[in-house]
Write a structure and sequence with these properties.
four-stranded antiparallel β-sheet, six-stranded mixed β-sheet, alpha/beta
Length: 228
């Protein structure tokens, strides 16, 4: 796996799902390029394929035809284990529903993914506490007692613990009020800038989309916008 710049290149991508006796095309994308470190907003109506697109470019699912490449790695040609390894090394996800364990503390939630890699070091724990403090989250508070804004910032810290090269966010502010949404987007864009990470945010919120110089739209199974 290469550590060089991770430009995204999508070519001839097609993804279909079975619909009764036939198949329905969810995405049919001829060509898309996103430069390493670029910030891109993605919009589209409900059911247009936005979340499916994130799954395709991160290797969670593979297209029936076409290719998805990050830098020199053709992700769509790797086996399941290799795609999982790539995602663990380079990609961070931020979701609308936080995906926190309510009975665990904010700190425990942040450190939980690291347990799958082996023993958590004192350095990891110290960094997690510092990041939670930076984003205004009480580390020892049970996740179920956090505000919704604090929950999403905890989820963001969990992403940042691996210092990803690519951050994919799926409606990260949809369940937040305006004030908390602004705080989360400020934190997300600043963190991505600090990491020099590629940031792709799916959102229907025009206030959030206005932050991006480049905005793509999924419509009728394809993507349109500048610089395809």
């Amino acid at each position: 796996m290469t550590d060089d710049a991770l430009d995204l290149t999508v070519l001839g991508l097609q993804y279909r799902v079975r619909d009764g006796a036939s198949f329905r095309t969810i995405l049919n994308l001829e060509r898309l390029k996103i430069a390493s470190g670029e910030f891109v907003g993605l919009k589209g109506t409900s059911g247009s394929g936005k979340s499916t697109f994130l799954k395709l470019i991160s290797g969670i699912v593979t297209p029936q035809s076409g290719s998805v490449s990050w830098g020199e790695v053709v992700l769509s040609q790797l086996g399941d284990a290799e795609r999982d390894d790539w995602r663990g090394r380079y990609c961070g996800f931020l979701f609308q529903d936080f995906r926190l364990f309510g009975a665990l503390s904010a700190l425990e939630n942040v450190l939980l993914p690291l347990t799958f890699r082996g023993r958590i070091s004192a350095k990891d724990r110290k960094r997690a506490i510092e990041l939670l403090d930076t984003y205004g989250v009480p580390a020892q508070t049970q996740a179920s007692l956090l505000s919704r804004g604090e929950m999403q910032r905890t989820a963001l810290v969990r992403v940042l613990m691996t210092s990803p090269k690519v951050i994919l966010a799926d409606e990260p502010t949809a369940s937040l009020d305006y004030h908390n949404a602004l705080q989360v987007m400020d934190a997300l864009t600043q963190a991505a800038a600090d990491l020099k990470a590629t940031l792709l945010v799916v959102t229907h919120d025009c206030q959030m989309l206005n932050r991006f110089e480049r905005v793509l739209t999924i419509e009728n199974g394809t993507i349109r916008g500048d610089g395809l």
